[in-house]
Structure formats: structure tokens, C-alpha cells
């Protein structure tokens, strides 16, 4: 099975496809190598460990799920941003079932830090975008946020609740949007 090496991008494309088809729990170096028609050793030329390949795959899944909202500068309405973000999460959950629930569990105990770092990096990025959307909404009352109730913590709270709603397969996030409206406007 010592075929010519493939590219790093092809390995990631195949790992995304396999993660989509079988889930991250079924993720192995051997399955990636077989799907690419290369030896396991060739995979290790591009990724020094299963954890490194898994982390790159998880990062690509995060990017795929949030591609539409990443850098989104839309209407100056935080509720619309949250609605769009929930759409991304719902679509991502449909494309990668149980991703939000199991991606951390796919890493072995020794690899948890690497998996957590990828997840934390991306969640910080999303929450930063949410905080910017909050700041650009002119309807937000000026007295809402202060040192004891910071906008960044509010963004983190909203994001966590969106992920929870998606995990429960809620059709929409209307109750959360109503809460946002009552708190901010």
C-alpha cells in the first residue's frame, strides 16, 4: 500500500468526509490512509499524530459550520446576528451530527488539551464576533453592560445557549431572541 503521498489538503478533505459519514468517534489514521489509498506512514508525514490530524479536522469542521457568519457585517441588529448564528449551528449539526456533543470526546485523555485548544480558539472567535455585533447595534441601551455584566460574558452565555438549543434540536431560538430583546432594548 505504499502509494505516492497525497497532499495535506486531501487528507483533511477525506477526514472531513469520514467524520461526516461515520462521526469523530470512528476517526482513525488507518481509515484516513485507506480512504486516500496511502500507507499509514504517509499520513504521519503530514500529521505527527492522530491528535494533530483530529485537531486539524475539528478546526475545519468549525470553519465549515461558521463560514457564513465568520466576519459577517450585516444589519445593525444583534438579534439578526444571533438568528444567523443559530442557523449556522443548526446546519452544522445536520451536516455533522452530534459534533458539538462529541468532538471533545473524540480525543484521547492525553490529547484533550489539543482538542480543547482548537475548540476554545474557535469559540473565542465566534464570541468576539458576537461582541462586535453587540457593539454595532445602535438600539442596545447604553446602561446594559458594565464591569459586573460585560458584553463578552453575555456573548458567551448566548453562544452556549445556542449550542444547547441545537443539541436539543430546537427548530428556532425565538425564546432566546426574546430574552435578548428584553435585556438589551
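Q: What amino acid sequence fits the structure above?
A:
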Amino acid at each position: 500500500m505504499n502509494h505516492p503521498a497525497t497532499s495535506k489538503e486531501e487528507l483533511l478533505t477525506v477526514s472531513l468526509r469520514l467524520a461526516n459519514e461515520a462521526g469523530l468517534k470512528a476517526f482513525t489514521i488507518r481509515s484516513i490512509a485507506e480512504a486516500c489509498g496511502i500507507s499509514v506512514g504517509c499520513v504521519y508525514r503530514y500529521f505527527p499524530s492522530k491528535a494533530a490530524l483530529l485537531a486539524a479536522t475539528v478546526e475545519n469542521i468549525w470553519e465549515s459550520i461558521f463560514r457564513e457568519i465568520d466576519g459577517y457585517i450585516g444589519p445593525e441588529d444583534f438579534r439578526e446576528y444571533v438568528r444567523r448564528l443559530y442557523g449556522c449551528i443548526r446546519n452544522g449539526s445536520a451536516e455533522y451530527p452530534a459534533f458539538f456533543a462529541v468532538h471533545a470526546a473524540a480525543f484521547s485523555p492525553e490529547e484533550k488539551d489539543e482538542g480543547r485548544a482548537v475548540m476554545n480558539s474557535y469559540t473565542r472567535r465566534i464570541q468576539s464576533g458576537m461582541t462586535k455585533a453587540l457593539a454595532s447595534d445602535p438600539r442596545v441601551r447604553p446602561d446594559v453592560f458594565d464591569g459586573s455584566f460585560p458584553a463578552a460574558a453575555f456573548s458567551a452565555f448566548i453562544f452556549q445557549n445556542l449550542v444547547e438549543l441545537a443539541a436539543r434540536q430546537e427548530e428556532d431560538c425565538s425564546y432566546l431572541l426574546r430574552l435578548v430583546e428584553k435585556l438589551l432594548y
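Q: And what stands out in the fold?
A: The CA atoms of residues 79 and 177 lie 6 Å apart.
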